[in-house]
Amino acid sequence: MAGTLWSQLTAIDFFGHSFQLAALAFLCFFPFLIVITAAVGRDAAAVVAGWLGLDRPAAQAVASLFTPGQGQGTLTVPSAFLLVLGAVAVASVLQGWYQKVFDVPARGWRDIRTQLYWLAALLTYGVAQTAVGRTLGGPVLQSLVGFAFATSFWWWSMHTLLAGAVRWPALFPAALVTGACWTGLGVFSSHYFSSAIVANQQKYGPIGIVMIILSWLVAVGVVIHLGAVVGRLYLDRHARP
Is 141 in contact with 206 (CB distance < 8 Å)? Predict the structure, then answer.
């Protein structure tokens, strides 16, 4: 099983794709996140810190990256179009991964509406995760609720990005594994990345924080690949003749 899993992961170049996602997310999705959260009165730094599960000192360090300048900027139509186009590119990459793993053909321009729909849901999920994390008391309860949230979101994400080509029950094993890995990454991130961000900020300044966030984004790509491939292997082994 482990050998088959590794061969499937390497066949889709999961590590290279994870670096691709990290670069696109930081260069294209984060500017989109900053603009959208500011437009609805939310804090982009709080959303990012909630995704990483950071403690207060690390969250404050991340917030220093999002400090607005003194001047009032304006968002022109071309810049807004480029922001949306960059965010759609991230959703397109993720959709392409799922289509490749589950053997679903791309639909061309018809996939763009699905990608925009998923981006809106991702922002809602990020804000909800941050709000829930602030209200819940203990880490065990936070992990359990986070696992339920993550499993539901990635289950819905796979079904949506695959345009319903794969049935809900068939996607549940992949969603369950993705939710478990996502929760495990959150627990690991809250312990390791929090201290690493503070230490890197003191040692390297803002670029040290960026290095840790990029590492986390690469880990997110690995988690998404792992969940999808394990779910597909389970589906193949337990499919009815």
Answer: no
- CA-nearest of 183, 162, 163 to 228 is 162
**Per-residue confidence in pLDDT tens, the chain, 241 aa:** 677 888 888 888 888 999 999 999 998 898 888 888 887 777 888 888 888 878 889 999 999 888 765 555 566 777 778 888 888 999 999 999 999 999 999 888 888 999 999 999 998 888 787 777 666 667 778 888 889 999 999 999 999 999 999 999 999 999 999 999 999 998 888 888 989 999 999 999 999 999 999 999 999 999 999 999 999 999 888 865 4
Rg of the chain, C-alpha, whole Å: 18
Indicate the DSSP class of residue 67.
-
Q: End-to-end distance of the chain based on CA atoms, in angstroms?
A: 21
Show the tokens assigned to 46.
Answer: 């709080």
Structure tokens at 164: 């319903």
Q: Whole-prediction pTM value?
A: 0.89
